[in-house]
């Protein structure tokens, strides 16, 4: 699967140009939006690699504006009334054009709707979340510089890599500041959502699975970025201890934290070591094997393969899972981990044994002795 978030930093490309990924939505509602952003990323890399810094700059500017359009979309959801006032002002009273079917998708505004507004006017939407004059004074020159560069006047004005990187850093600094302004609203929206019975209550919510509910029902719908998820995962849910449905609210928060870890984890990730999954599948070893290891009992029976679920030698519960790929065992009841070498199977009855010195279990040994005597 290729997505812009999977882009790895190549040695010869400055890492600053990838910093913008942190502010882009992690998941898109519409695949065409993802394709558009990926195309921009590709154009940026291609220009850069060919030393066409002036064009790379223009493409970075477009990515920057795209990020801000997603921000504006969030503002329109969270501060509808104030947002409409700004749009009314910017459209000189002709607000219907903005909400017109030509400027919306499925009856709703989307990030591209903002392209209708001139870029330097657009920044005024950020007033709703507290942009001051200083910030506006720093944002508007971005558009002026871009305009200078974008005209086919035959001049290459940005010739050096260092000048390009310097400009990129200016953009990134502003993004940090803009997301800081948005932070409190995002936190409020998060807690409003997860403490809402329609969202947490298993009887009525859209997805039974905790991960799906948080990923599809919150992260994707609200176009959250890695930067925002990073801020939310640090929040403490324990202040909702007395709240009805706290158990579910807490699990949803854990699912969000886990999602953040998943997208920021490196390649040596193994699901059997994942503390969150161990918690999620407590006493549900069967579901863990099917959902996370993707080994299905029905196909094991059909193929004559072993379904890797055993009785735990520590607690006797049938909750011990074997992960063949990593040669590890974990008990989803008593939470004990075993290495592949620690577990042996009795050659007589097949029972699991821990660090056994003989190849048959105590019960079978006793039986044998009785028979022989
Ligand atoms: Zn156990
Ligand atoms: Zn035995």
Report on this model:
The chain is mostly helical and 373 residues long. It has three domains: 4-182, no CATH class; 195-265, no CATH class; 283-372, no CATH class. It is built from 15 helices and six strands. The longest helix is centred in the middle third of the chain and has 34 residues, at 161-194. Helix 2 packs parallel to helix 7 and helix 7 packs across helix 10 (226-233). The strands form two sheets. The chain has a four-stranded antiparallel beta sheet with strand order 1-2-3-4, covered by helices on one side. It has a two-stranded antiparallel sheet with strand order 5-6. The structure holds zinc ion (2 copies). One zinc ion binds at residues 346, 348-349, 351, 360-361, 363-364. The site of one zinc ion has 8 residues, from helix 15.
How are the strands ordered across the major sheet?
A: 1-2-3-4
Outline the biggest β-sheet.
4 strands, antiparallel
Structural category is mainly alpha
Overall pLDDT confidence: 91
Low confidence ranges: 1-10
| Radius of gyration from the alpha-carbon trace, in angstroms | 28 Å
Percent of sequence in beta strands = 5-15%
List the main descriptive attributes of the protein structure presented here.
about 375 residues; mainly alpha; four-stranded antiparallel β-sheet; 15 helices; disordered N terminus; binds zinc ion
In short, what is this structure?
By secondary structure, the protein is mostly helical.
